[in-house]
Amino acid sequence: MSSNPSQKRRLAVVTPRKASYKDLSVYHTRDYLDAILYSGNPGKTEGEAEPNAEFGLEDDCPYFLGLSEYVQMVAGATLTAVSALQQNLSEIAICWDGGRHHARKSQASGFCYVADCILAILALKRAPIPVASSSGGLPIPIQKPRIMYLDLDLHFSDAVSEAFYSPISSSSPQILTLSIHHTAPGFFPISERAKLPDVSSPDFDPLTLSIPLHPGASNATYAKIWPLVERVRDTFRPDFIVVQCGVDALAGDPCSTFNWSLGGDEGSLGGCIQKIVDQWAGKKLLLGGGGYNSPNAARAWAYLTSISTGNPISLETEIPDHVGFPLYGPSFTLDVPAGNMTDHNTEEYLTSVKQCFDNVIISLEQRMTASH
Ligand SMILES: [Zn+2]
């Protein structure tokens, strides 16, 4: 989609290509790819592949018939969206099948078999971008692109955040990850990086950031933390923004942890995405993610698509008649309203998050300045 703030944009549907073995091996290990891709092992047919705990192919990531094709299509769709941005075909690209933020280099995890978010970031990182138009026949100066990964899923983006975590790096900062999520003892996924950053710790990396929220997080809470997200953006000045739009933080999800709503007040999921696509500089890649109330996930991604076109449809829109129509009761409308869960993110807690990020921003500024 071409970007024209607050104006309608032209939408084009692009047929995704399948990711090749080479595409996937940019991040995944050969051993893992051989376990999930029958094409990577010519001697093995798809039906012969075994569940394999070593590669995480068990529990919520079982081996299934068609896994090879599925992995190639998910990663291929995200990489097709990346190409559309890099080739200047659009300012905004969407792949709702992407956003598999728990998949690791050699391990499936949390319903994620392929690390399409990481592959997308690596592809964006690789291609230099022009700084400005040339004049007088001078070569066009180029710079390494900066990519901000923002994860709105209920769960911490463990695989993505840890893939780029580098507390002692002195190289030019190119990738910043910021995940807004719930974390608690025993709550998936377990990771040191899921906690509020401790700026005084030697492990602190100002490019690997987390904003953990307590149960019941509502629009009001997201509205209060959103200025912190924008301060991080202003300090990092990304050329590309990759947004993982998991919708399991919405009210009505079986995870029943947060109480976010799709539209309405300041701070809603729709409101946050609208700010990103209408007001943020840089090209945007919108990916999907978790979401276990399927009708609500469909509602959310349909609404976010309409926001991205610059022409948000009314939340009162009736669900059109189709084979899944009965699943959309009792409202049969587009909206995913908040429930009546108590928001446990107190003023005191949100103030502590702000104070933490005051220091995070100083540290991030120092890291950005040190690289010049
Ligand atoms: Zn999730």
Automatic annotation (TrEMBL):
Domain Histone deacetylase: 9-306
UniProt name for this protein: Histone deacetylase 8
One Pfam family named in its UniProt record: Hist_deacetyl
Cofactor dependency: a divalent metal cation
Keyword flag Repressor: yes
EC number: 3.5.1.98
Family: Belongs to the histone deacetylase family. HD type 1 subfamily.
Localization (cell): Chromosome; Cytoplasm; Nucleus
